[in-house]
Amino acid sequence: MEKDFTEANRYYDAQKKVKEIRGFYEHLTVYVLCNPIVIVVNYMTSPEYLWWIWSVMGWGIAIVLHGLKVFEYPPFYNKKWEQKKIQEILEKENQKRLENNHGNKFE
Fold first, then answer.
1. Nearest of 7, 23, 5 to residue 62 by alpha carbon
2. What pLDDT, in 10s, does the model give residues 26-51?
C-alpha cells in the first residue's frame, strides 16, 4: 500500500513539474512572438524614442526569473528551501503550543 502511495506522489510531482516547464515555454513563446510587434509599433509611432528596449528588457528579466524558478537554478526558494522553511514553521508552532499548554497548567 505504501509503495502505491509513494508512486502516486511521485507521478503527481512529475506531472506538476511538466506543467511548470510547459508554462515557462509558453511564456517564452509569447515573449518571442510579441516583442517583434512591440518593436515595429515603436518604430512606426515614435522612432525618435526607442522605448521598446525597456519593454524587451523588463519582460526579459521576468523570463529569466521564471526560467530560474522552473529549472531550480537559484540557490534560494527551491525545494530544499521550502522543506527547511516548513520545518521551521512547524517547530515554531509546536514551541508556541508547548508554551501555551505549559502556561495553562500553572494557572
1. 23
2. 999 999 999 999 999 999 999 999 99
Q: What angle do CA 28, 17, 5 make, to 5 degrees?
A: 170
**Tens digits of residue pLDDT in 58-96:** 999 999 999 988 988 866 666 777 888 889 999 999 998
For the chain, the domains span 1-73, 75-107
DSSP 72-85: T-SSSSSHHHHHHH
Length of the chain: 107
- What does the angle CA 92 – CA 78 – CA 3 come to, to the nearest 5 degrees? 85
Total-model pTM: 0.66
CB-based contacts of 21: which residues, under 8 Å, 6+ apart? 70, 71
